[in-house]
Structure to design on (253 residues):
């Protein structure tokens, strides 16, 4: 049985991945949908032509993750693609945001992503692919987005290293690094003490990000960056010192 696993499938970019996979991937037997909100997953599943298996689990709970791992062992599928889209961010000064929420950000964006990747790799074969949702925030430290940017730097670094480790096995990893995307992300992110004004100028639609990510994954690219502004931002982060960007952010704050 050939399957594709998508975490964070109930909304945003994860949901869009499911929609595009359902339309364009023919040789997939099932799409495994992972998210907390079961009602949303069932609605998404009902709209898909492919058979979907629903895992209404919380990736922050070890018992829920263990349940998913048990199902992997029971079904012993071939995972042709893993898409780790689950994650969240909170804008605001580090010392003013609740520490529990910031630790949960680390646990979901980094720990859960790492665990799901680790558990899925044994079920992958030649030409299997992994797509990890990082962010353009991974390119440099971010004032008032300190923990989120750090978690996405982890995802980017981890993905690039793993891509090289697994190259000989024919498993390819792509880190997706979008800028602001028009999803529910900011409904939660901006409940903190900050606002991301940049989004008003460079916001893109999830359909565009996902289409680009799937193309780059198919072409075995290690990083997927959607849109000219974010590509220029990446180049700038490589050329200019990060201290300069941080001073500019402090001035604009």
């Amino acid at each position: 049985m050939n399957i594709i696993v998508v975490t964070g499938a109930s909304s945003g970019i994860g949901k869009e991945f499911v929609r595009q996979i359902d339309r364009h991937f023919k040789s997939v037997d099932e799409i495994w949908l992972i998210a907390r909100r079961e009602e949303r997953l069932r609605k998404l599943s009902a709209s898909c032509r492919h058979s979907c298996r629903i895992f209404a689990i919380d990736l922050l709970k070890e018992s829920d993750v263990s349940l998913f791992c048990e199902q992997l062992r029971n079904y012993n599928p071939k995972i042709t693609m893993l898409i780790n889209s689950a994650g969240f961010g909170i804008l605001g000064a580090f010392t003013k945001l609740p520490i529990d929420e910031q630790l949960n950000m680390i646990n979901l964006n980094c720990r859960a992503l790492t665990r799901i990747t680790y558990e899925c790799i044994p079920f992958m074969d030649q030409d299997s692919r992994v797509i990890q949702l990082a962010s353009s925030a991974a390119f440099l430290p971010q004032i008032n987005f300190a923990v989120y940017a750090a978690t996405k730097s982890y995802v980017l670094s981890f993905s690039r290293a793993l891509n090289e480790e697994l190259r000989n096995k024919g498993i390819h990893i792509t880190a997706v690094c979008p800028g602001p995307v028009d999803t529910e992300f900011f409904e939660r992110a901006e409940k903190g003490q900050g606002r991301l004004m940049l989004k008003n100028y460079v916001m893109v639609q999830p359909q565009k990000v996902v289409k680009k990510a799937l193309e780059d994954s198919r072409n075995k690219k290690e990083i997927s960056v959607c849109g000219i502004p974010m590509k220029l931002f990446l180049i700038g982060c490589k050329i200019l010192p990060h201290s300069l960007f941080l001073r500019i952010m402090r001035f604009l704050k």
The two ends are 51 Å apart (CA to CA). The longest helix spans residues 99-120.
